[in-house]
Fold Aminopeptidase N.
Amino acid sequence: MKYPVLGTLTLLLALQVGALAQNVRPSQGTVPKASTRKKAPASSESVTATETSTVVIPSWLPSSGPQQPAATLLHDLQHTVLDLRFDWAKQQVIGTATLTVRPHFQSQSQLVLDAKGFDIRNIRLLLGNGKEKALTYGYDKRQLVVNLDRSYARTETYQVRIAYVAKPNELPAGGSAAITSDKGLFFINPLGTEKGKPRQIWTQGETENNSAWFPTIDKPNQRMTQEIRLTVDGQYKTLSNGLLVASKNNADGTRTDTWKQALPAAPYLTMIAVGDFAVVKDTWRGKAVDYYVEPKFAGTAKAVFGNTPQMLDFFSKKFGVEYPWEKYAQIAVRDYVSGAMENTSAVVHGEGIQATRRELLDQNFDWVIAHEVVHHWFGNYVTCESWANLPLNESFADYGEFLWTEYKYGADAAAMVQQTSLNHYLQEAEDKRVPLIRYTYRDKEDMFDRHSYQKGGRVLHMLRKYVGDEAFYLALNQYLTRNKYTAVEVDELRMVFEEVTGEDLKWFFDQWFLQRGHPELRITHSYNNGQVSLRVQQQQDTVYTPVYRLPVAVAVWGNSNQPTIHNITVTKADQQFVFSSSQRPNLVKFDDEAQLLAKIDEELSQEELLYQFQHARNYLQKYQAIDGLRTKVGDLTVSAMLRNALNDKFWGVRVAAVEALKRYKGAEGGAVRKEIQRVATTDTRSEVRAAAITTLNSFSNEDFGSVYEAALNDSSYVVISAALGALTRNPTVNSQAKISSLQETPNTRVITALGGYYALNGHLDQYDWFLSHVETLQEAELYTFLPNFGQFMQRMPPIEREKGVKKLEMLARNAPSYLVRLGAYKGLSALAERSQELKTVLQDIRAKEKDEGLKGMYNLL
C-alpha cells in the first residue's frame, strides 16, 4: 500500500508547489506541535501505580492498545476458484467460491471463513466424481461457520463450494484514514448516470476487506493459489492476478475471462477490475508488462509507466532473486480509496497517475511505481505474518523508492528522497511515537503511518550503512530465498543479518524496530591545544525513548581540500570525543554523510556554514548550509553564497537558495531581485521557476506583475499555479483575460490555484465553475478547494448562496473522506460569521461527527 492518508492531524496530500517532481512524493503537510507534556493516566503503559503522581508523559505517547497476535492457523487455504457475475444496478456480486483447504495441525470438524454481508445460497462438500453433499452452517454476517461432514486430519485436503451474493455497497460504512473505505469491492458509476465518468468495478483487499466479496480466511499469514472467472459485458476489459488463460464469448453477449495464478499469495493480495480500459503492452524477459489506462491516456501510458521493465530488472539483480510472478500489470481506476496497492502481478493506482504530456513536464511517478514493484518481493513473495509486522512490507517498499532514485537519477536526487522521508516522519512524531514493530494497537490500519513507511525506510538505510552493501544485499537475498511464499516476523530478518555479519544485532533491532522515538541530539565542538573536543548530548525523553547507540562519521576539515574522517560510536546521554588536529579546523561536521534518523541541533558558526557550502560534496551538505544561514541572508557574504547557489548544477540546491532569499533586505536588493527574476523566467526546472515566483511574491509593496503575467503562459502547470498564487493578492488588469482562459484547463493543480484566486477576486460569473469542480475534484484537491469556495461565496448575494451552501453541508456531513468533510466544514465556517443559522448547522455537524480526531480539528477552527 502506498501513500495512505495518515490520520486526521497530518493532512496528507497537501500538495505544494515545491514538491519534488522527479521522484519524491508531494509534501505530506504538517502537524500541530506536541511539545507540551501531560500527567500520565493510570492506564498508560510503562508507568507504575507509584509513578502516576509524579511522572508525566509526553503528548506524543499514545495509550496502549490490546495485544494483537498473529492469527491462529486452524486451516491452511490451498486454492480458491471464483466464478463471478455482477449486478450493476444492485451493486452486487453473484458468486460461487470453491475453496480447497486442509487443517493446519489439529483435526477440524468446522471451517470458519470470513464473509461480510453475504446472502448464502448453499454450501456443498465436493466428494469427487461429480458428487457433492450439502453442509449446514452458521452465519452472523461477518463469519461463516461451515459444519463439515466429519473431522478432518491435517493430512486430508477437502473442497467446499459456496454459492453466495455479496453486497459490499450495503455494508455499514467503514474505513480508516489510510484506506477510506473497507467495503472491498467498488462499483463506479454503476448506472452510467454520472456524465464523463467511466463505469468500473475494482477491488481493494488490504487489510482484510476482500472477504466483503468472496469467502476466505482473510489473514496475512494465509497463502493460496487461485483461479478467477469473470463474466462481464463484452465491451469491458478485465484484470486479475496471474495470467489470462481463457476468454470465452457467451451467447448472451457477455464474455467470461479466466485468470489463473499458480503461485501462492496472501488473500488480501487478490484483485479484480472491470471497465473500459486501453491496454498498452510492454515486456520484460518474456513476461507481459501491461498498463491499463482510460483510453484518452493510452498515448502517454508508456511515458508514465515505461520504466517498469527496467525496475524489474534492477531489483531482480539488487535482491538476487528474479521477479517471480507470472506477469506485471498496472491499472489506474477512478475514485480509488488509497494511494496504490501491490496486488500480486496486478497493481492498482488511483486515477491521478494518468497524465498528459504537459503534466509530465512537472513530475513523474517513478517513486510510487518503484514502491509497488518492491512489494512483489517484500510483501508478496515474503509476507508479514501479522499487521504488527507491517514494516517488513512497507519499510522495504519505501526504501525501494530511495534505491531506484539513487540508481536512476543520482545521489543528489536520492538524498532529497531521504531528506523528505525524514521530515515526514518527524512531522508525525510531533504527535505520535510508537515502535516500528508494535503488537499493541487499536486498529490494524493504525499501522499504515509514517513510522511503518518513512521511518522504516530510513532505519533500513542506517542498517545498510552499518553492515556495508555486500552484507546488506546478501542478507536480503537469504531472507527472501529462505522465506519465499511464507509469512515472517521481524526476528527472522534480524537472525539472517546476524548470520551473514557474524554480529549480534539485537541492539540495532531493539532500539530501531522495537522501541519508540528517535535521537534528539545537541552537537557542539571546541578547539584547544591541538585537540578538537566534540560533545554529543542526547536530549530525547529517555523515560520513554532509549539512549541510542549511534555509529556515526565525523569530518574534521583542516586547510586541505579533504577532511579527516573519524568513525565514532555514541553510547551515552552526554559524551565527549577528542580528536587530534595540528590547527584549528575550518569545520567539524557531525554525521558527515547525514545517515542518522535523528533530530540534530548542531552548533556551527556562520564561517563554518559558509565553508561547508563551499566544500560540500553532495546536496544534503549544501542544503544544511543554506538552511543554517537563512536568518543571515542580509549579510553580503551569505547573499553572495546564495546567489552562487542559484546556478548550482542540481535543481534542489537552486530551490533551497531561492527560498532562502525570501524577504531579502540587504544592500544588494536590486541585484538579488534581478537574479530571482532571471531564475523565475529562465531556469530549466519548473520547480525552481515556481519557487522563484513565490519568493518574488514575498517582497511586499514591490511590483513583479509582468513576471507573474508572463508565467501564466509557461509550459509548466506548476509555474502557472505559482503565478496564480502570486496574483491572488496582487491582481493585474493585463492578466484577467489569460486567467479567465485557464478556467478550461483540465489540470487539477491549476484548478485549485484558480479556486484560491477567485476566492478573493471572483465574481458571480465563476459560481457555476466552482459548483462544477466540486463534483469532479478528488479528495486531496477538495480539501483546499472547498474552503476557497466558501470564501468566494462571501462575495455573492445571500440569495445566490443556497445551492453552494447545501452542497458544502452535504459534503461536511456525508463525504466518505475526512479530508473532504474537513474542507467542507471550513468552507461553511467562512460563511457562518454573520449567519446564526449556519452556526447552528456547524454545531450540529460537530455533534454528529464520529471521527474524534476530526471533531478535535473542528474545535480548533
